[in-house]
């Protein structure tokens, strides 16, 4: 999002829906800003963090998968571990 729903500027924001049609902003909507900590400890400033999906392993929620755009024209996927 462009910062319209939190004061974090461009960020990944959480909405919810009871029916998949009508969406509302979550009580705590900020999921992540665009600074993502990589496995090696470095921080990457992304142009976009979007199209999130949840990843389950053996029935347990383990990661949030997101498409990222580091620079215009170069995109890939990141896995954000969930606790």
The largest sheet has its strands arranged as: 5-6-7
> Which structural class fits the helix and strand makeup?
mainly beta
**How many E-type strands?**
7
* Tally of discrete structural domains: 2
Order of helices and strands: EEEEEEE
Helix count from the secondary structure assignment = 0
Percentage beta strand: over 45%
Written overview of the protein:
With about 80 residues, the chain is an all-beta fold. Helices cover about 0% and strands about 65% of the residues. A hairpin with a 2-residue loop joins strand 6 (about 60-70) and strand 7 (about 75-80).
Task: Chart the SSEs and their pairings.
Elements: E1 11-17, E2 23-33, E3 35-37, E4 43-45, E5 48-57, E6 60-71, E7 74-81
Antiparallel strand pairs: 1-2, 3-4, 5-6, 6-7
What does this entry show, briefly?
This protein has strands at about 10-15, 25-35, 35, 45, 50-55, 60-70, 75-80.
Task: Tag the structure with descriptive keywords.
83 residues; mainly beta; 2 domains; three-stranded antiparallel β-sheet; two-stranded antiparallel ribbon; 0% helix; 65% strand; globular
């Amino acid at each position: 999002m462009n910062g319209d729903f939190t004061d974090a500027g461009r960020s990944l924001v959480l909405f919810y829906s009871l029916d998949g049609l009508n969406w509302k902003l979550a009580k705590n909507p900020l999921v992540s800003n665009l600074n993502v900590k990589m496995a090696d400890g470095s921080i990457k400033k992304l142009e976009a963090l979007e199209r999130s999906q949840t990843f389950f392993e053996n029935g347990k929620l383990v990661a949030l998968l997101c498409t990222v755009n580091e620079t215009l024209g170069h995109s890939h996927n990141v896995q954000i571990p969930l606790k």
